[in-house]
Amino acid sequence: xxxxxxIGPSGxxxxxxxxxxxxxxxxxxxxxxxxxxxxxxxxxxxSAKKEKTRIASIKRALFIYEEHANSVKKEIKNAxxxxxxxxxxxxxxxxxxxxKLDLPEIIEKVYIHEVAKQSEINIALxxxxxxxxxxxxxxxxxxxxxxxxxxxxxLQIFRRKGKGSFQLVSEKSVVRPTFSYMGKYTIxxxxxxxxxxYIILNINGISRISRFKVESGNDGITMDIDLILLYGxxxxxxxxxxxxxxxxxxxxxxxxxxxxLNLTAKGLIIQSKQTRK
Length: 277
Prior knowledge:
Elements: E1 2-7, H1 14-24, E2 29-32, E3 35-38, E4 41-45, H2 54-61, H3 66-79, E5 83-88, H4 91-100, E6 108-111, H5 112-115, H6 118-131, E7 134-136, H7 140-143, E8 151-162, E9 165-176, H8 189-201, E10 206-217, E11 220-230, H9 235-254, E12 258-269, H10 273-276
Parallel strand pairs: 1-5, 1-6, 2-5, 11-12
Antiparallel strand pairs: 2-3, 3-4, 7-9, 8-9, 10-11
């Protein structure tokens, strides 16, 4: 197995360029910040960017936690890849990761200044310092549930195909971890209720919400909503439309991942002629 290190100080744009470097070296597997990645998909591991403190983040990236390291080692053993690219902030870091994961010695090292201009590195450093943004080299849908409640944005990379024509090459994700800014991002259950109520009551066929419950987990929230409907509307299509609309809007507004949205029609109300007018 060929092991290559990709090295550069924190915030210089390594994750942004990881796929480019891996492709140029014919490498399918990438190890970055605690994750094992293949073909834009997370295969194993847990992102260091989910940790609440910078120290915990460093430990996660270095695979200090035994259970975490073992899960990645198991997947590497099963896949038996021809080559792996390891990202790190120093020679010592990539060498330590290789050793922790029982990988062969690193035979080649690529440094960020070899693949990025100094002006590009400076921009990346400025973005990290001023906005606390970190890049993960996988599409947003791949890590959405793991980063429920975090500020998470897609970053699409295009290549020019011809005059006025562009081709999507890859999608990465931009996340602002808890440790990168002051304070913690939280949303109360009542705030979620207010958003859901506004969306639902603006859909024709709904009288009111009779019960609302939210259960939070590490990978998102589960919502249970009981509704009183207006007589005269097809119930199944109405509930399906509400489910789709509420899920889309709450995820967009709050960045929360909705694991499940359970709707129950608890009653029907017949509108009076005066109300219908």
